[in-house]
Every structure is written in C-alpha cells, then in structure tokens.
Write a structure and sequence with these properties.
alpha/beta, 5 strands, globular
Length: 192
C-alpha cells in the first residue's frame, strides 16, 4: 500500500509540509509506504480543456507537455491513497493545487476514472479563517472522482502563520495524527 502526499504550498517546508508529515508519520507507523511531492517546482499550468488526454487515453496529459505534471501522474495512478495539502490563499487552494486538481481530474475521468475508490484526504494550513473552504474544495475533487474520504476528530486544519506555527496547534496536530491513523486503517480494510 502506498500514499502519495502533494504539497500545494510554495513553501517547501512550511506549515502545510509539517501537517502533511504528521499524517504521513502515522501512515508510515502502520506500514504504509509514503511519498511527498512538492507541486510548486513542477510549475503545473492550468488545464486548456483541449481533451487531447481523451484521444490518447494513456493516463497522461497531451495538451501541455512543458511542465512537470506527466512526471508524477504514474505515481498518482499507482497510489492507493492521496493526501492533498494546501495553505489557505484568499479562502481557497493555491493556484498550484487548483491546476493540479483540474488537470489530474480530467485526465483521470477520460481514462476510465483512474481515481475511483482510492482513499483521499485534505490537509489545510490556515492563518485565521477561510480554511474550511479549502477543505471543501479538495473534498469536492475527491467526491467527484469517486474517492473514499476518511474523517478524523475534527476538520483537517492546522492554524499558524509562520513556518512551524501549525506544530504548536495541539488540536490541529491531534486531528492530523488521527487522520493518518484512520487513513491507514481504511487502506488496510479496503485493500486486504
């Protein structure tokens, strides 16, 4: 079993990274293989709605070839679960995460619904407010893809501004710890 976490933050080791690693740590403790991918360096562009991915049906994007999306798509398709992490930017996901959602979403759907029944969970860093909208945006992506979303003891949100601040949010850390445990449990139940 493997979970791929995608960090939609421009900060390589900021609060979103820390929160993803809390959940990933619990998955690793349960024997699940994990990988964390930073989206910002991939420079994923916006979907052009050209539907070239529907013509070739090989699980790749053929409309845009000069960014890093196709490098990671095989890892997405092979994974049993996904963690999508984003900081809160103006009450929504970052542009990096939105471009990822749009491009991966269409490629998955036109290639036989490649994400159906995979496990997916959102991870959100927020300074003060707007984080629930980010959580909803990511969950809507999971739901329209036919994915299974585990819960936790609260919303998967950590509060903080400066790098490392979210690790001082005890409730947020507890929530992400339980998310990792619940995701590992669900993976084992659905993949055995």
């Amino acid at each position: 079993m493997k979970v791929v976490a995608l960090n939609g933050s421009v900060h390589k080791k900021g609060n979103t990274y820390d929160l993803l690693n809390v959940a990933l740590g619990e998955l690793k403790n349960a024997g699940v293989k994990t990988e964390l991918i930073q989206l910002a360096p991939l420079k994923i562009q916006a979907c052009r709605a050209c539907y070239k991915c529907a013509q070739k049906t090989d699980g790749l994007c053929h409309g845009i070839k000069d960014d890093g999306l196709n490098e990671i798509l095989p890892k997405i398709w092979e994974a049993d679960g996904l963690l999508l992490g984003s900081p809160t930017w103006f009450s929504n996901v970052t542009g990096h995460m939105k471009n990822f959602i749009d491009r991966v979403g269409i490629v998955a759907r036109v290639n036989g619904h490649l994400l159906t029944r995979k496990i997916g969970a959102p991870v959100v860093a927020v300074r003060r407010a707007g984080g629930i909208v980010v959580l909803d945006a990511i969950n809507h992506f999971f739901f329209i893809q036919g994915m299974i979303v585990p819960g936790s003891v609260y919303w998967n949100v950590g509060v903080g501004r400066e790098p490392g601040d979210c690790m001082q949010d005890d409730e947020g850390v507890e929530t992400l710890t339980m998310l990792g445990r619940n995701m590992a449990w669900l993976l084992k139940k659905t993949r055995e």
